[in-house]
Amino acid sequence: KPKGRDRCCQRLLSCVKLRSVDELHKVFTFLVAAFLANSFFVAGKNVGTVLFLSVVGPEHLTTVIFTSGLCSIAFGQAFSALSRSRTTTQVNGVLCMGGAALTTFFFLGATMLPQKLPNEGGSSLWWGVLLLYFGIYISEDIMTMFVAMQCASVAQSYFSVSDAKRLFGKVTLGNSLAAMSVGIVIGDIAKAIGTVQLLMVQSFLLLASALVNCYIANAYADQATGGKKKRRRAGGGDSSSEEPWWRNWLVLAMGLWSFTVIFTKTMYEYQYNVVAAKTLTAQEMVTITGYLYAGAGIASTLINISGTDVCLATFGMRGAILATPLALLVASAAILTNLSIETTFVGRLVDLSLRWSLNNTVRTVLWIAVPAQQAATAKPWIEGTVKKMGQAFNAAVISVALLLAGGNLGVLSVLSVAFCAVLFACCIRVYDLYLHSMWFRVKRRELQHTMFEHLPDDSHIRDAIKEKLIYGDTVAQLDILLHMGENFSDEDWEEFVKRFYERQTAVQLAVMKLGRKQPKRVKDTFLLELMDKPTIDASVLQVAILSCGDRKLHGTVASLQMHLGHIRPTVRAAAAVSILK
């Protein structure tokens, strides 16, 4: 290619922070896959609920939510068994093709049977229509979740850890684009072709996803990283795995967090669906719900781009942890004060926007504080089973609460406010548990240095670690120097080095070794001063002498010549090497 085109291409790639055209092609391919999967998700969350409410009615909504929760647990077990012996693309292919066939089946059933529940209850036709739309709701509820989840699993298995850190933000842009675009146009599509016909649109989306999935499996076969994990040798690895995860208070608090967020989300959804079904037509409900997902996509994108960083920089990790329960508490109180389609719309918008952005980021950071083996065991329960069982539990709670309250939807807002208040109180404690767990992992040397790239820029955390570095015991100082020494600011480091001669020899040695890697950490004047200290340990002196040679400090030649007569041969050898340099 002409050199001018090459330079132009490199400039474009550098603007989007990509390294090559091949990497651009790969990111675009996975972005398209994410767009198709999330388009199916947004359409399904809209169509399944609207069809059920317009045909069956809101009186059976709690029953179908409860049934869907139980079915999702059973489907999750079957899905787990399917995933054990197959690659992520194979599982995704089966899921997409099976989902397309199932959606087509429901479309044919909806076109052949009446689109209104017959008046004669108990007849075979009545049961047929009821079961069909129960199946549509449950299928949409389960398939949307697993298709979106498996698409993410495919992406995770085709990117290395370092590439994922750089590129996943661009890949997940497909999710936000799908939420915005599909949310805006789905109402117009429903008006043009009808709500039932949206089922076939979903089938085509799944077929397109299957084609992209097949292309990924063939084009990037040599880049797949998803394989069986090697077992740790006995006596190595994460020693905290000896403790079961249910004894970790941070994990239990995150379980309560998951349950409460799902509880509140279910309450918002139920109130919104019932109020909307009474005041809107099916097509109007499709349009309004589409705008809901579009608004959530836009809001979550803005939060991901700048809101999360601003929240962490301004309020620290504690503020980021408390943001979700506080926002849900305010939204629940607003719905309690004025139950309407507007307030329930805003409540769902707040819930979706935070769950797709800040809430996910904070929970990802919190999981880093959990020992690796505990996290691997606990995550499927906390992020999977708790949510699925919570959905079934919530349906039962809604039924009982409405029965006791005579059908008054306001009682659900009272429950939401109560649960959010409990979550807010719990999250106040979560921050202290997080700090304690992080420091516990650092002391046991269970965290690698690269993992600290994921941690937020929280001044409270930085101050706590700085205090441990300056005033902690020898083991604490060595652990911090080993894992985080390179990340300390110049000001914090200078304050620590001021008390260099009061430190233990092992700590002095760690400081000098880090100074060899990062010369700006240990100044030349400090090395010159150290060379003339008669009481300094020989091991520390040896590293200081080698640092002088690395930096070619000609002013130290006289001192180096003097150390050629040192009693320790290692010091004499280091002095000779530095003089030669």
Question: Overview of this structure, please?
Answer:
The protein is mostly helical and 581 residues long. The protein has helices at residues 3-15, 21-55, 61-84, 88-112, 124-157, 161-171, 173-193, 198-219, 249-279, 282-337, 341-355, 358-368, 372-404, 410-443, 459-471, 474-484, 490-497, 505-517, 524-531, 538-551, 557-563, 569-580. The chain starts with a helix and ends with a helix.
Q: How much beta, percentage-wise?
A: under 5%
> Biggest sheet, open or closed, and with what strands and sense?
none
End-to-end CA span: 45 Å
Shape type = elongated
What is the average per-residue confidence, as pLDDT, rounded to a whole number?
A: 82
Percentage of residues assigned to helices: over 70%
Number of E strands: 0
Look at the helices and sheets and give the structural class: mainly alpha
Please mark out the parts with pLDDT under 50 across 5 or more consecutive residues, or reply none: 226-241, 448-456
Number of helices: 22
**What's the order of the H and E elements?**
HHHHHHHHHHHHHHHHHHHHHH
Oligomerization status of the protein chains: single chain
Question: What Rg, in angstroms, do the CA atoms define?
Answer: 30 Å
